């Protein structure tokens, strides 16, 4: 593998984000599935991880992290999903979210979406996730205020 240390770093990042998400209970449960979500500035990523996944690190870029877990498996397992994100600011202007799927060697699966933001900007997210092999649609709506200065 070309990036063994970066993969370990990204796995560590994912587990950290998942732990933060779990602590804050930023999740939605529907039947046997959980959608975990979190947002943070792109500057929280290391340069190595940002370069690996071609993510721009900037105080004016935000990231949304998503993962879908199948609770029917023991322990719960991250699975692929079809994810649709609509994001708008308070002026009802659309925020383009570029979503990438990350599948790691150890079968960790998560999604990172990047978007532009301004200082003290409230962003309203509406996320629909359909777990692979399921007809169920997990929906979550939430708002975050971002500070860049």
Q: Strand count, sense and closure of the main sheet?
A: 6 strands, antiparallel
State the end-to-end distance. 38 Å
Task: Please name the fourth-level CATH homologous superfamily.
Answer: Domain of unknown function DUF4426
Unreliable segments (pLDDT under 50, ≥5 consecutive)? 19-23
Give the rounded overall mean pLDDT: 87
Which strand-content bin applies to the residues?
over 45%
The DSSP helix count reads 2
Using only CA atoms, what is the Rg?
Answer: 15 Å
**Count of beta strands:** 10
CATH class: Mainly Beta
Helical percent range? Answer: 10-25%
* Structure classification: alpha+beta
- How many domain modules? 1
- Listing every helix as H and every strand as E from the N terminus to the C terminus, the arrangement reads HEEHEEEEEEEE
CATH architecture: Sandwich
Shape, please?
Answer: globular
Fold-level CATH name: Immunoglobulin-like
Description:
- With 149 residues, the protein is α+β, with helices and mostly antiparallel strands.
- The chain has one domain (4-132): Immunoglobulin-like.
- 18% of the residues lie in helices and 48% in strands.
- The chain has two helices and ten strands, in the order αββαββββββββ.
- The protein has helices at residues 4-24, 47-52, and strands at residues 27-30, 33-41, 61-70, 77-79, 81-89, 94-95, 98-103, 109-116, 121-131, 138-146.
- Strands 1, 2, 3, 4, 7 and 8 form a six-stranded antiparallel β-sheet that branches.
- It is globular and about 45 Å long.
